[in-house]
Amino acid sequence: MIIVFPFGKPFPGGSAIYLDILLDIVNRIVTEPITIISEAIDEKLIARKNYSNRLMYVPVQKYFIRKRTPLKPLFLALQVISLAYKIFKYSRHNEIIWIHSAFFIKNTPLAFILKYIKRFKRLNIVIDMRDPAIPSNRIRALKCFDRFVVCSEELRKNAIAEGIAEDCVQFIPVPVNDIAHSEFPVCSDVKNKYGIKNRYVYNSNGINERKSFNELYDAWRGLIDAGYVVDLVISGNAVGDVARYSECNGDKGAFVYTGSLDHREVLSLIRCADLVPNPSKIEALPRMSIEACLLNRPVLLPGYISKFAKLDGRFLWDNDHAITKMIDLLGSGNTPNLDFSDYKVERVQSLYKKTITDLIA
């Protein structure tokens, strides 16, 4: 079996958790060797697993660049060709290829190439979609593959509406651990560790325009201008200049960037936060927001997600009224009442197991 992360690396707290669960299931029920093809991999994750010599990691050349330049299409084409070649080289006839990345869907040339590799080697290809929405033309381009794993009911209905057979679309939700009764360090220790001096707003999506960081930063600056003493604490990857966001630090609040943290540290920061807002518009069902709800923290949630859309509007992020809503919820202890029982890790594991077992059969 081959597991593919086409572009980027599976980051801790997000894709790495899916990879962790998927590898555990694969290791138990697949007897043949396991190959991971990716731009980069979490070596700590692999090191702590007992795979002996069964797992092989195949890196993909890092041609891909995220900034817009005239050469970007060329670099992207090279990346697609490199990835397709690695899949062709390392796959065996009748093997399962599990492609895990929404970015793959945005590169239909790769889908076109894989269609012919699939025919030649008789591969069973699974597309694991982790995006809130995929354009209809992208879904139609992927009809030739064997199975589609989606993380939202909306995407499942969309895929079926575009002509993909219902029994080929499997809904596997975001996996969530039971964290409500977990033990965490006291909040004073957490704040001292990261130099947080005041009440704080927390977000673990990093400094990333794609996840609407600028909207969050501007809303926090609005809190400061309104006279509130509150810090903004950000974890995750930084795309851009971190230093410029700290230039305005003063007595009324500070910008604190922690860098990438392991999942346990993120949970500690969520648990002690006075507010966990999520303005991102590209989430299928954000783990950070789910975990904040499970830890009974005040949240602002993306309203376009159906599970959140029917909530009281004060819990939904709105750029035009973000400052007012943040003031209303900051440190209030008010949390929306949501049921995440279907998202337990055990259920996600059983769904992955069934999907892989069906493909093997």
Walkthrough of the structure:
With 361 residues, this protein is an alpha/beta fold. The protein has 15 helices and 12 strands. The strands form 3 sheets. The protein has a 7-stranded parallel beta sheet, with helices on both faces. Helix 2 (43-47) links the parallel strand 2 and strand 3. Helix 1 crosses helix 15 (345-360), helix 3 packs parallel to helix 5 (108-121) and helix 9 packs across helix 14 (322-329). The mean pLDDT is 81.
Mean pLDDT: 81
In what range is the share of β-strand residues?
A: 5-15%
Global structural class = alpha/beta
Low-confidence stretches: none
Largest β sheet strand count, sense and barrel closure: 7 strands, parallel
Into which percent range does the helicity of residues fall?
25-40%
Q: Gyration radius, to the nearest Å?
A: 21 Å
Question: Termini, distance in Å?
Answer: 14 Å
Number of helices: 15
> In order across it, which strands form the biggest sheet?
3-2-1-4-5-6-7
Shape: elongated
SSE pattern, N- to C-terminal: EHEHEHEHHEHEHEHEHEHEHEHEHHH
Annotation, overall tally of beta strands = 12
Describe, in short, the structure shown.
This protein is of the alpha/beta class. It is 40% helix and 14% strand.
